[in-house]
Amino acid sequence: MMLREETVFGPIRSRRLGNSLGINLLPEQGKLCNFDCIYCECGWNRDGRGDRRLPSAADVASALESRLSSLQGGGAKLDSITFSGDGEPTLNPDFPGIVRDTLRLRDRYFPDAKVSVLTNATRLDAPGVSEALRSVDNPILKIDAPSNELASRINRPAPGYDVRKVVEAMKDFEGQFILQTMFLRCDDFDSSAPEVLLPWMDIVRELRPRQIMAYTLDRPSPLEGLQKFTVEQMRSMLLPLIEKGFDVRVYG
């Protein structure tokens, strides 16, 4: 499995975000997440090497400024500065301050780059997290399954996760966010099944996000036997939303 072993890594070519410089707010030698998704490229939480050291706001700012300065000096092109890494970035208690520092440094070195955050949206009620996410260009919020029972099969969240609570918290964004959803099938879960797809589309209609990122498996997963969908299959599944004018981006 793929773990990021630097606080700032890349740039890498992202199928969704272009030339992307990554920021990992989690342990450099481990994984830390309140989901344990069956498709996670970082592997299972239990295999996270035991490292629990989180970089501070000062650590991140120093590493980011050094990398941005170097990239600027080399004439690099940068489309996005992306919070991703080995788990859930909002678990870092310095997340709001780190976002502020990142926006400041982006403006100084690469003002045309977008700041993006990939998050499972479980901590929108934590102090400063929702405000920080609403300040970035691309808050990319995850809902893979429309019910707690289905989420337990694919995301395996920590106790207390509630899809309805997450949906209500997302309403504070007033549609100014990107909804990301993984589409896959296995013995225990099928994104195309009516009991998954139809209520998920109801959530989309309720939230009306400015964009939907529909993607499927692209890297090795910890659970064997997962099956990806083709781009054509996903477009067909999402046609009712496309026909209603939703901005649906499909990534195979």
Account of the protein in words:
There is one protein chain. With 252 residues, the chain is an alpha/beta fold. 32% of the residues lie in helices and 18% in strands. The protein is built from eight helices and ten strands. Strands 1-2-3-4-5-6-8-10 form an eight-stranded mixed β-sheet. Strands 7-9 form a two-stranded antiparallel sheet. The model has no long low-confidence stretch (mean pLDDT 93).
Q: Shape from CA axes?
A: globular
Number of strands: 10
Structural class: alpha/beta
Q: Termini, distance in Å?
A: 20 Å
The biggest beta sheet is recorded as:
8 strands, mixed
Instruction: Summarize the amount of helix as a percent range.
Output: 25-40%
The Cα radius of gyration reads 18 Å
The residue ranges in which pLDDT falls below 50 over 5 or more consecutive positions are none
What is the H-and-E element order?
EEHEHEHEHHEEHEEHHE
Spatial order of the strands in the main sheet? 1-2-3-4-5-6-8-10
Count the helices. How many?
8
Whole-number mean pLDDT = 93
Portion in strands: 15-25%
Defining traits:
252 residues; eight-stranded mixed β-sheet; two-stranded antiparallel sheet; 10 strands
Summarize the entry for a quick read.
The chain is an alpha/beta fold. It is built from eight helices and ten strands. Strands 1-2-3-4-5-6-8-10 form an eight-stranded mixed β-sheet. It has a two-stranded antiparallel ribbon with strand order 7-9.
Task: Lay out the secondary structure.
Layout: E1 8-14, E2 18-23, H1 57-73, E3 80-83, H2 95-109, E4 114-119, H3 129-135, E5 138-142, H4 148-154, H5 163-170, E6 178-182, E7 184-185, H6 194-207, E8 211-215, E9 227-228, H7 231-237, H8 239-243, E10 248-251
Parallel strand pairs: 2-3, 3-4, 4-5, 5-6, 6-8, 8-10
Antiparallel strand pairs: 1-2, 7-9
Helix pairs in contact: 1-2, 2-3
